[in-house]
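Changelog-linked ticket: beta-D-galactopyranose example.
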Amino acid sequence: MPVTPTRFPVPGLAYGGDYNPEQWPEEVWAEDVALMREAGVTMVSVGIFSWALLEPAPGVHDFGWLDRLLDLLHQHGVAVDLGTPTVVPPAWFYQRHPEALPVTRDGQRLAFGGRGAICHSSPAYREAATGIAARLAERYGRHPALALWHVHNEYGAPVSACYCEVSAADFRRWLRERYRTLDALNEAWGTAFWGQRYGEWEQIQPPRRTPTTGNPGQALDYARFSSDAMLGNFTAERDVLHRLSPGVPVTTNFMTALSQCQSVDYWAWGREVDLVSNDHYLVAEAERTHVNLAMSADLSRSVAGGAPWLLLEHSTGAVNWQPRNLAKRPGELGRNSLAHVARGSEGAMFFQWRASRFGAEKFHSSMLPHAGTDSRIWREVVQLGADLGRLAEVNGSRVRADAAVLWDWQSWWAQDLEWRPTEDHRADERADAFYEALYDRHLTVDFARPGAPLDAYPLVVVPALYLAEAETGEHLRRYVEQGGVLVVSYFSGIVDGTDTVHPGPHPGALRDVLGLTVEEFLPLRAGQRVALTAATGGAAGVSGDVWSEAVVPRGAETVWHYAEGPAAGGPAITRHRLGAGSAWYVSTRLAPADLDQVLARACRDAGIRDRDQLPRDVEVVHREGERDSYLFAVNHTAAEARVPLERPGTELLTGEPAAGQLRVPAGGVRVVRLPR
Ligand code: GAL
C-alpha cells in the first residue's frame, strides 16, 4: 500500500532535474554542485539509468561513485530523488535472459541498445529489478540526502505491451482471475461471433496480428492486462523500498499528456504511488502549447486526487525527439514551470541538469547547456530558482476547480479499437477540444473518473465516453437531477466494460439522462462540414464535421438543428431539463470556438459567470492554502495583461502590494497572496 508522505520531499518548492554525473569525470561534479547552489537547485534525480554501472557483472556491485555523489550533494544541501535503474537492465542480464526482451504484436523481438526493452511478465526481470532496488534501499534507504524514490522511468514508453509466450501465459493467469470460468470469458468477449469460442484456457493468446481485425474484447483486456503487468512491477519495487527505507515516499514519473502516453491507466496507478509526479514535454510545433501543458497538469493533479504532485521533468528549451525541435522562446522556460505550479505542482524539475556530450540526447536542452553559464538559458534557470524560492509558501495549497471533465483511459483504449463508424473520431482529440474550450472560458477543471463524486462541480463535461457502464449513466442522472449541468459529446455511453453494446437504442448508458435516443450514426465524408441552425432562429454560424447522427428527442429539447448533411432537419444539439439540472448533448464534432457557444449556455444553466474580462491566453488559477489563497496569473501573450483582483494582496515575485487591476507583463507570471 502507498504511504501518504508525512512531508513533501523537500521544504518549499522542489527545483532541479535529472542529474547523470556518471557521464562526466568526477572533477566536473564539484562544479555541478557549485552551480546548483547558484541556481537554487533543491533536488536532483539520480541513478535512473545506472544499473550497468552499479552492478557491472551479475551480483558484483560498485556503489563507490554513488556513495561519493550522494555525500557531495548532501554537503551542498541538494536532496536526492534516487532512481531504481530498472528501465535499462544491463547487457549481461539480457545475455542470460534473452526471453526478457519484449516481442511486438508482429512477433519481432526487440533488441538491447535503447531503453525500456522489457517484457513486464518476465519473472527473471521482476527478480532482478526488485533485487537491485533492494540493494539500493539497503545502502541508501536512510541516507540523509534521500528525499524521494523514483522507480523505473516512464512506464508505458517506449514499450507498452509484450506479445511473447511468457506474456501469453501471464495473460491467461490474469484472465482466470478476472473471469474465473471459460464460459464467462467467452461471453464477455462475444466469441460466438466469427466462431472464436475457446474450449481450453491454453488456446487463448495475446491479440497478435490476425488476418483481419481480431476480437475487440480480447484486445481491450490485453490493454488492461499490460497496464496491470507494468503496475505489478512498480508495486513490487515499491514494496521493497517501503520495507527497507520506511517513511521515504516512492514515485514513478507519469506522462499524463494524452499525446505522450496512452497505455497506462493512471486512475489505477495514481492510487499506488506516494506522490504523483509527471513528465511533460511541449508539442513544440503546436500553436498554443500552453493549453496542452495546462491539461497535463490538471490531469496530474486529478490522478493525485487533488493532493500535491510534482512536475518531475520538462525541458528548458528544445527536446530532440520531435520532427522539428523548436526551441522555447525567451521567458517561456519560467512561464511553463510556473504554469505547472499554478495547477498544483510543488516545484519544477527538468530533464536534465547538464547537457550530455554523447549518446542519443546530446541535442536535448538542459539547465546547464553546452553553451555554458554565459547563456540565456542559464540566466533564466537562475532566475527561475529565485522565483520558486519566493513562492515557497504555496506548498501544500490546493487548486480550486470550477468544473470537471469525465475521463477514462480504458474507454479511450476501447474507443481506439478497429472497425468503428469512422476513423476520423478520436476520444483524445475530443478531450483536447473540450478542454481547450473550457480553458478559453477561463475555467479551471479537475478530471474525474467515472463514478467519482461530482457534487462539488456545477458543470461536468463528458468529451467522448464510448465505454460507460450502466452505473455511470445512473450516477450522471442523479448528478443532473440534483442540480448539476452536464455536457456530453457524441459516441458516449455506447458499450459496457466488455465492449458490448448496451441493450436497446444508443446511447444505452446515457439515454435517460440525455432524454434522447440515437437511431443511426451518420458519419461524414473526409473534410465534409455541416452547418447547424439555432432552433430559435438567427445565424448561429456553428458547424460540425466528422460525425452526425439521427437523434430522436425523448424529453430533450432541440437547441440546434442540422441544416444540412445526412441528418438535415434533425436535432444536432439538445438540452434535457431533468430534476434540478440539465443535460446537454452535442451530436457532432465542434471545433473549440463553436463548442464555446454550447458551453456558454451550459455555464449559464450552471450559474457560472462569464470571465470575459480576462484576455485570451491569460490563465488565472487559484490555489487555496490554510490561511491564504494564491492567485496565479500566467500571461502567454505578447502584450501586458490586466487581471482584476477581488481584494488587495501581495505579489510574491516582486514583493509589491497588489490591488484593483493586477498588471501581468507580456509573457510573464504574477502570483498574488490574498488573505482568505
Ligand atoms: C523523457 C525521459 C527522459 C529523457 C527526456 C527527453 O521522456 O524520461 O529520460 O529522455 O524524455 O525529453
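Closing comment: Example verified and attached. Residues 153-154, 279, 281, 313, 319, 351, 361, 364 surround beta-D-galactopyranose (CB under 6 Å). The longest strand covers residues 571-578.
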